[in-house]
């Protein structure tokens, strides 16, 4: 089993940067596809980015492409989301998710989720 704990959220001004981390426990982390999602108040949870276990294949939502970078360190069982050029519309609770299936991650139907970390961008 994999358990996920996010950290790194906070309040920053528009144009700033934040790096989120998701630490995973469990011996099978390196075989998992990992993803980041976000949910703004009153909105549905949406896909942000995903990365395959090898780290060589990534996918981004159009809204964050070119600004966010997902990466992973299998030795540390951690996945990161580097967020640059942040906008007020990036304000949301950010969640990480893990699954053995890339399709399930992108579809947001993984059964392994972290508790979320709040990101607030001021204008």
Structural overview:
The chain is mainly beta. The chain has one helix and eleven strands. The protein has one helix at residues 102-107, and strands at 3-7, 10-13, 18-25, 33-39, 46-51, 58-60, 68-73, 78-83, 92-99, 112-113, 117-122.
Identify low-pLDDT runs: none
Beta content comes to over 45%
What form results from the Cα inertia axes?
A: globular
- The Rg value, from CA coordinates, equals 13 Å
Q: What is the SS-derived class? A: mainly beta
H/I helix tally: 1
Major sheet description:
7 strands, mixed
- Can you give the helix content as a percent range? under 10%
C-alpha end-to-end distance = 40 Å
The count of DSSP E runs of length 2 or more, i.e. the number of strands, is 11
Give the overall average pLDDT. Answer: 93
Order of helices and strands: EEEEEEEEEHEE
Would you spell out the secondary-structure blueprint of this structure?
Blueprint: E1 3-7, E2 10-13, E3 18-25, E4 33-39, E5 46-51, E6 58-60, E7 68-73, E8 78-83, E9 92-99, H1 102-107, E10 112-113, E11 117-122
Parallel strand pairs: 2-11
Antiparallel strand pairs: 1-3, 3-8, 4-5, 4-9, 5-6, 7-8, 9-10, 9-11
């Amino acid at each position: 089993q994999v358990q996920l704990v996010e950290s790194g959220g906070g309040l920053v001004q528009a144009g700033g940067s934040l790096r989120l981390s998701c630490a995973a426990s469990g011996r099978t982390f390196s075989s998992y596809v990992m993803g980041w999602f976000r949910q703004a108040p009153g909105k549905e949870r949406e896909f942000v980015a995903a990365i395959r276990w090898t780290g060589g294949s990534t996918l981004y939502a159009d809204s964050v492409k070119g600004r966010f970078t997902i990466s992973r360190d299998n030795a540390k069982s951690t996945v990161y989301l580097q967020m640059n050029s942040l906008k007020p519309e990036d304000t949301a609770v950010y969640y990480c998710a893990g699954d053995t299936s890339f399709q399930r991650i992108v579809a947001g139907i993984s059964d392994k989720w972290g508790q979320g970390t709040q990101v607030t961008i001021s204008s």
